[in-house]
Amino acid sequence: MYDLIGDIHGYASALKCLLRELGYQEQQGTWQHLERKVIFLGDFVDRGPEQVETVQIARRMVEAGHALAVMGNHEFNAVAWATPCTEQPGAFLRVHSDKNREQHDAFLVQIGEGSQEHLDTIEWFKTLPLYLELEGLRVIHACWHPQQFEALAPHLDQQTRIRTGSWPAVCTDGSEAFDAVETLLKGMEIPLPPGLHFKDKYGHQRSRTRTRWWHEGEQLTYRDLAMVPPSIIEQIPHEPVPAELQPGYDGSKPLFIGHYWMSGTPVLMTDQIACLDYSIAGEDPSRAKLCAYRWSGETRLSEENFVWVGREA
């Protein structure tokens, strides 16, 4: 049976507290449980003060057989940042712009950019699968999308890890492989009807919106599905969304995701989908949570199985 843990973002102290709450003990250099394993949902790094220790805890558990893990968008970005672009000498698969460095700088400072530990950690990130299809449950960082799995098939090995030679393809903005990875690790975006747009919280004009892709129903509108702040929702049209723009979820197994910076008391998205990202790295420490779900084989999830700790626990 599995204990699934959401985005940690470098808060190792909270992670250790949550592991204790779940009944794990640190023995022989790794955290372990007599009867259960952890599944990490990715996003170990960026933002928090204990990023190196967070990676060490997760990696040791995985390598000792006490945990599984999937890749988050922050691990993907970390690999791309550190991987040279062979076609452009001096360039990297993720552009070293000021914006991108600002997002990643805390990790680079803490681990020592270019150090042996940094390079070794990048190699471990490359071993993380994009998704897990296990007996009784599924795990992915942001969006379960079978059509995008098919698009990525040539670039993944049998363990759904990105093939060594495919990193340039999956990092090329605008390619089919890039768009597929963006969907799986950051969520599904759909274009608004032609000529329609809205302004985000930064004042930037947007013609696409991230969606609650798991919602199903007849005559769902763009406003029903848009993931935008309440102050913006009135800008989103109430026009019906074409069915082909929403994958929905087939519901054949419970699904666990992270990524979406939820807040408040953890609740289920549906009786078969749980998001475990409750903003441990959020701006308000009093509301920040590191969240887990204790799964014991049930086909219908229960909110009674959420377990969480605060940042200051």
Explained architecture:
With 313 residues, the protein is α/β, with parallel strands linked by helices. It contains 9 helices and 15 strands. It has helices at 12-21, 51-63, 73-82, 98-111, 116-126, 146-152, 167-170, 176-186, 222-225, and strands at 2-5, 25-27, 30-32, 37-40, 67-69, 131-134, 137-140, 189-191, 198-199, 205-206, 208-210, 255-257, 273-275, 289-295, 306-310. Strands 5-4-1-14-15 form a 5-stranded mixed β-sheet. Helix 3 (73-82) crosses helix 5 and helix 6 (146-152) packs across helix 8 (176-186). The chain is globular. The two termini are 25 Å apart. The model has no long low-confidence stretch (mean pLDDT 94).
| Class from secondary-structure proportions | alpha/beta
Overall shape: globular
Low-confidence stretches: none
Instruction: Please tally the β strands and state the result.
Output: 15
- Share in β-strands: 15-25%
What topology, given as strand order, has the largest sheet? 5-4-1-14-15
Major beta-sheet overview: 5 strands, mixed
Distance between the termini: 25 Å
Relevant terms:
313 residues; alpha/beta; five-stranded mixed sheet; four-stranded mixed sheet; 9 helices; globular
Overview in brief:
This protein is of the alpha/beta class and 313 residues long. It is built from 9 helices and 15 strands.
Topology record:
Blueprint lengths: L1 E4 L6 H10 L3 E3 L2 E3 L4 E4 L10 H13 L3 E3 L3 H10 L15 H14 L4 H11 L4 E4 L2 E4 L5 H7 L14 H4 L5 H11 L2 E3 L6 E2 L5 E2 L1 E3 L11 H4 L29 E3 L15 E3 L13 E7 L10 E5 L3
Parallel strand pairs: 1-4, 4-5, 7-12, 12-13
Antiparallel strand pairs: 1-14, 2-3, 6-7, 8-11, 9-10, 14-15
